[in-house]
Design goal:
The chain is mainly α. Helices cover 51% and strands 5% of the residues. Strands 1-2-3 form a three-stranded antiparallel sheet. Strand 1 and strand 2 (106-110) form a beta hairpin. The radius of gyration is 20 Å and the shape is globular.
Length: 240
């Protein structure tokens, strides 16, 4: 995989998938426990620090105010904005949202990755975006955003349709370049930025972790590491 030019974290993800298959095989008695290759081979060795994915509030505002030139760019901006204002909800969960997920002015959903229930009060900007898409054809099928529709019934159909994420991220990348942003813009930047802005405001890591729907604070800390390192760098300047 290294020879194929794959990134270290991509390789780590694939090895973790392989490990999951081995665990399932052992659980179903397809192979013996002695065949398990991960007793001594630790997947944790295959990792590297993720690139910086959080932006300051000023740059976030510039993205939100950007006037998209195509339908894809406008959708990309709305998804980015919605994610930022709804506790960093990720693309898959946004795509699966239905109007039934809005209860008493709050967004209530089960995060696909961790199966944790998330309840977030809707900000005015989020309500505006929901209202904007309420009259579309997808709205009649219950979905909030024009990503999935009534046609996408099977898990395979949904999975194939969700590959539109690549197009969304390409549009965001172009927008980021147009704005001269210091990092590559993706939907995940909204999630990381939400976490970092809250941390800068003095919110505890445990509350941020709960908002993001993480399975542990350790994962949240990865999001916040680059911010805390920058704080240390700034603090060190006052030593002399």
């Amino acid at each position: 995989m290294l020879k194929q030019g794959l990134a270290i974290n991509t390789i780590g993800t694939r090895i973790r998938h392989l490990r999951a298959v081995f665990n399932m095989a052992i659980e179903h008695h397809v192979i013996d426990k002695e065949c398990y290759p991960f007793h001594s081979y630790k997947v944790s060795k295959i990792s590297q620090s993720p690139p910086k994915r959080a932006m300051c509030k000023g740059d976030i505002q510039r993205v939100i105010e950007y006037k998209g030139k195509t339908d894809m760019e406008m959708l990309a901006i709305d998804l980015f904005t919605f994610s930022y204002f709804t506790a960093g909800i990720n693309f898959i969960d946004m795509a699966m949202l239905k109007h039934d997920n809005i209860v008493d002015g709050k967004l209530c959903y089960i995060r696909a990755k961790t199966k944790k229930q998330i309840i977030i009060p809707l900000q005015e900007k989020s309500k505006e975006i929901i209202s904007h898409y309420s009259n579309g054809s997808e709205s009649s099928s219950g979905y909030i955003f024009p990503i999935l529709s009534a046609y996408h019934k099977s898990e395979m159909q949904k999975a194939n349709r969700l590959q539109v994420l690549a197009k969304i991220n390409r549009a965001l990348k172009h927008i980021g370049e147009e704005l001269g942003l210091p990092i590559k813009l993706t939907t995940y930047v909204a999630r990381h930025s939400f976490a970092t802005v809250l941390k800068r405001a003095g919110v505890s890591t445990s509350i941020i972790s709960e908002s993001l729907g993480h399975s542990s604070e350790k994962i949240t800390q990865i999001y916040l590491d680059s911010f805390e390192k920058s704080q240390i760098d700034e603090a060190m300047k006052h030593l002399e």
